[in-house]
Structures are given as C-alpha cells and as structure tokens.
Amino acid sequence: MDVMDAFTRFTNQTQGRERLFRATQYTCMLLRYLLEPKAGKEKVVMKLKKLESSVSTGRKWFRLGNVVHAVQATQQSIHATDLVPRLCLTLANLNRVIYFICDTILWVRSVGLASGINKEKWRMWAARHYYYSLLLSLVRDLYEISLQMEQVAHDKAKGEKSSSQDPLGYSVADEETEWLQSFLFLLFQSLKKHPPLLLDTVKNFCDILNPLDQLGIYKSNPGIIGLGGLVSSIAGVITVAYPQMKLKTH
Predict the structure, then answer these.
(1) Please, which of 40, 174, 203, 233 could form a disulfide with 22 given CB 3.0 to 4.6 Å?
(2) Which tens digit of pLDDT belongs to each residue from 82-124?
(3) CB 190 within 8 A of CB 150
(4) Terminal Cα-to-Cα distance of the chain (whole angstroms)
C-alpha cells in the first residue's frame, strides 16, 4: 500500500511526470544506440527516434515553471549554515536559473513564437550553465562525502581505542595499498550510511555527461549519455517518490 501511495503522489506531481518522461527519453536513446548496428532493425530504430523526440518535446512543457523553482531554491540555499554548501548551492542554483531561461527561449523558438532566435548560441549557453550547475553540485557532494568519511574514521578510531586494538591500516599509512583500502572502506561506509548523498552524487555525475559532450570537453557516444540519463532519471524518480531520500541542506 505504501508503494502504491508513493506512486500515486509521484504521478500527481509535475516534477514526477517530467522524471518519467525523462527516463523514457533516455531509454529510447540507449535502445536506439544498441539497435542501430543490427541489421533489420531500421523500423524499430526510427520509431524509437520519433518517440524520443516526442517525449523530449513533452518534457519542455513540464520544465516551463522550473525558473521559479530554481529562484526559490537559490533563496533557500542562501540560508544554509555551512559556508561550502551555501556557496556551492547558491551558485549552482543561479546557474540553473540561467539554464532554465535559456531552455525557455529555445522552447519559444521551437513552437514558432520567435523565429529570429539563434538556436545554436542559446543551446550552448544552456549547456554551459547546466554544466556549471552540476559541477558546483558535485563539489558540494564531495564536500559532504569528506565530512562523512571524517566522521566514520573518527568513530572507527574511537571504537578501536576502546577495545584496545591497534588501529587498522594507520600504522602502515605509507603503503599505497593500505591507504587505498582504508579510503575505499571509509567511502563505502559513508555512502552506505547516507543513501540520499549517494543518490545525489550518482545523479549529478550521470547528468554531467551530457553537457560535457555538448561543450566538447569530454566526448561520449549516445549509448553512454543514454545510460547516464536513465540512471540519473531513476535516481530522480526515487527522490520525488520518497522525499526523505532527497539530500537535505543544513
């Protein structure tokens, strides 16, 4: 019953429907990439391409009000108590505001309301500010991860001290393998204890693949972008359906 209630709440939200459209769009992109090299799949590929285009157009309608949400998010992030998240999130949200403005202008051109708009110029501006937003969000994620790793390391050292055991790995910190094992252990434990932080990091990392490709910083193929977009969309679906899984700003 809880799952059904969560699904109902999810589909009733504009943001939830946009996430479903997004997941569909990137699923089509991934399937199209996988099927294109195969002989006899031309009709299926063409249908997937048309569906992808239709879903992409539908998503633009859901995103029209996102400028307001981004402005509200900027106002909220200004009041974060910790300096690093406050700075990163405020700048990230400001870039999101600019990105959604560019996105709206591109939508105006696509529906024929203004024909004199330079599509390529505005598309690159949108990609650039989307990239800045995601990069700043990832910096915030890495900062939060470092704090959690410090806490796990402190608790671990405290537990070892109380049990009168030699600290594991710290006596041979000069050995790269021991350091790597210790780092991976702390990273795993930190993300395991904080699923919202894991989801946010995975989502931002997968999302940044698209603007990296558009800006020519790191070229990817449609398969990688489609897979990244699908994983990111699933993470977004989870955070919308279960708000407690959304990373909170302190």
Answers:
(1) 233
(2) 999 999 999 999 999 999 999 989 888 887 787 788 889 999 9
(3) no
(4) 32
